[in-house]
Amino acid sequence: MTAITDTYLAETYTAQLNPNLPSPELLALSAEVIRQGGLVAFPTETVYGLGANAWSESAVDNIFRAKQRPANDPIIVHIDDMELLQEVAVDIPDIAYNLVDKFWAGALTLILKKHDRIPYNVTAGRDTVAVRMPNHPVALGLIHQANVPIAAPSANRFSRPSPTKAQHVLEDLDGHVDIIFDAGATDIGVESTILDLTSAIPTVLRPGGVTIEALREVLPTVALRPTYFDESDESIPSPGTLTKHYAPSAEMRVFTGENEQQVLSQMAQEANSAVDRGLSVGILALDTDAQAFEDVFANIVLLGDTLESMAQHLFAGIRQLDQQEVDVIMARAPQQSEIGLAIWDRLHRSAEGNLITVS
Ligand code: TXA
Ligand code: MG
């Protein structure tokens, strides 16, 4: 019997680099690592990605092994120019070009019909491929120098929160990636929006950095169908969007409800009673919500005072509380519009679907 502990092993080298002016020597060296079938973790504007040569089945296999990612979960292909788009996808509809004009380089991933040249494991056997052009000089520089499209999932271990700092990548993948670029914290903090252009109605499978409201300006008919299925559900259109995802070790309790003040006071109450039962409690909160927890004995991580800032700091906050080994993490789900929808989605998944509605 073959061991299922198969992984990708490497001596991990972390390189600091200027996000706006990355060293050409470092990019050239890392591009060579990519071409040779190795793995490079790099920043994008959303989260850090774990990159491999998308033309090489064995290189892409290293991603699955390093992350311990299930083989049925397809990977996004990252490109740096429009010529490359036609080498990875076919039958590209006009609407794709309209969207690309407005949103690339940026946090929008398009699902298109795949080109024959894309290896089987990149798309997990599907006839569609996910493509995006990231808006980050390091990511673009690396793809350009490597002169190949780069397949890259988020650079976390499977089911851990996505990394928004190089340190997070190191925590999860030290010894399983050749090079980690450290170019500081990522800007958006949640992953790209995934838009399926192969379904009859263009459908968002994962809300992300580009908002539905912005998409509607180009594509008024866009539908939203994030998937919160069980792993056993065969109709899953996007397996990485399983409910169990971004799950911290702590129990995650996400609160929602019409009346913000009511939600906050219920959270404070539950936090206090958890503390009374001897549990250690972590709270993720907007600065403006912090007052509600003044009398609560908990580790409070403040995420800033806008939804953009909340998105930016959310995954780091979950990781921080996990490291402090709290038993419970509590958070209030934001409004389901603009970037709030992506935050809501990630909180919902990290709570494995168990939202507490306060009415
Ligand atoms: O912002 C992002 O999208 C980051 C950065 C690194 O680009 N990447 C990222 O990759 O979040 P990953 O693998 O963690 O999430 C990609 C999602 C997965 O849920 C996967 O199932 C879905 O995209 N996906 C990939 N190819 C697909 C396809 N052909 N059809 C449907 N879903 C697909
Ligand atoms: Mg991921």
Write up this protein.
By secondary structure, this protein is α/β, with parallel strands linked by helices. Helices cover 31% and strands 19% of the residues. It is built from ten helices and 17 strands. The chain has helices spanning 24-35, 57-67, 82-88, 94-103, 137-146, 166-173, 212-218, 260-276, 307-323, 339-350; strands spanning 13-16, 40-43, 48-53, 77-78, 89-90, 108-114, 128-132, 150-151, 179-182, 193-196, 203-206, 223-224, 251-256, 281-285, 299-302, 328-332, 355-357. Strands 1, 2, 3, 4, 5, 6, 7, 8, 9, 10, 11 and 12 form a twelve-stranded mixed sheet that branches. A hairpin with a 4-residue loop joins strand 2 and strand 3 (48-53). Helix 9 (307-323) runs parallel beside helix 10 (339-350). The relative contact order is 0.14. Residues 44, 46-47, 49, 73-76, 109, 111, 123, 126, 128-130, 134, 152-154, 191-192, 194, 205, 237-241 line the site of threonylcarbamoyladenylate (TXA).
**If helices are DSSP runs of H or I spanning 4 or more residues, what is the number of helices?**
10
**Cofactors and ligands present?**
threonylcarbamoyladenylate, magnesium ion
Q: Give the SSE order as H and E letters.
A: EHEEHEHEHEEHEHEEEHEEHEEHEHE
What is the C-alpha radius of gyration, as a whole number of Å?
20 Å
Q: Report how far the terminal alpha carbons are from each other.
A: 54 Å
Overall average pLDDT: 93
Tell me the overall shape. Answer: globular
Measured as a percent range, the helix fraction is 25-40%
Stretches with pLDDT under 50, minimum 5 residues: 229-236
Q: Assess the beta-strand content as a share of residues.
A: 15-25%
Structural class: alpha/beta
Number of strands: 17
Quick one: biggest sheet?
12 strands, mixed
